[in-house]
Batch of 2 targets.
Target 1
Amino acid sequence: MNRDNMPKDSQQDQPVVFVVDDDRSVRDALEDLLASVGLGSMLFASSQEFLQAERPDAPACLVLDVRMPGLSGLDFQDELARQGLHIPIVFITAHGDIPMSVRAMKGGAIEFLTKPFRDQDLLDAIQQGIARDRIRRQEEAVRQDLRRRYASLNQGERAVMDLVIKGLLNKQIAGMLDVSEITVKVRRGRVMRKIGAQSLADLVRFAERIHEADRGWRD
């Protein structure tokens, strides 16, 4: 089941396995293997071909050959990281060694398989990669929602929010910001509505999650 032949609606829901290998016979064999377990695939003869292709927005895993003309699989792993493309990678190779495998795993690879390997070992690694990517995508969706809600606050509302979560009373906040207590109450109400908080505890939790998300974006 090649990904290109799948209906567009189903493409958004179904995971996809990217295969980058300069050997056509390997690509074809992997396509057949993946199809046998109901996994869609997209095949590429080079890393450049992969980078230039339009890829679906779906949970994914990348099966990557280590030794290829031009950019090697390990160098391509580094390039993906530089571009912020966090796709779980399963390496396959006929000529692997310990330094290669160590570098791949330190770079975050799911698995480093040396031929000949069992089909089931590859499929298990791919499923692990897809599961990891699902979690990453879910976490990213949460972070984007947090960022969207926080971005909806104007400067005055953010100032009030920062002081509210520190436990200050409206009267104290009004004095610190040099505004009326009524203005603080109005801004505080807007903050609660925009953030979707029902209580001060909700607002504090939101602020903590925003802080954690900010650290994730910086990392």
Target 2
Amino acid sequence: MNSRERILARVRRALADVPAGETPIARDYLREHGHRTVAETVELLAENLADYRAIVHRTDSAGLAGLIAGLLEKRGSASVLVPPGLDEGWLAATGVTRVADRGESTPHELDRVDSVVTACAVAIAETGTIVLDGSPDQGRRRITLVPDHHVCVVRVAGQVVSSVPQGLERLDPARPLTWISGPSATSDIELDRVEGVHGPRTLEVILVSED
């Protein structure tokens, strides 16, 4: 008997008295670490996003279009990739050329786009994580992995949760989930950090207070 067979035999013995299809799963872990108000949860999200070197902005619905236009102008963006379901009002204040999210776009074509603007599915405060699920206002996964600059809009407080378990409850596991904690980065053996290896070098997150 090899190691694999030995481990599987132990699993079978442990489950011998459990009816088929009724394997119990313990769900008694902490759902969040401590108790926070909504405002404290949003502050924790902003703090952890910044700790991951994302750039955090705050505005309300009325100021969102102007803020996005300013960020694209400051970046010097001549083109912006737009998911098909993105709120048209978000880009109403900018004259930057819009590039549609097309299935036939090649990686080289996407690489020539300066920026991408998306919404998100949920934002997790304790980990500083933004989750995209491929919804129409977020587009396909690769449009946020190839362009060098990603602007992501988070609705506060409706899309902000405290913990990963709370975030998972809002997500459909059958959808293409992309979990983003800061701009793409990696380090070599000497811990020299390099950003933009597997995604955008710059992640800007806009926390929009809901009306």
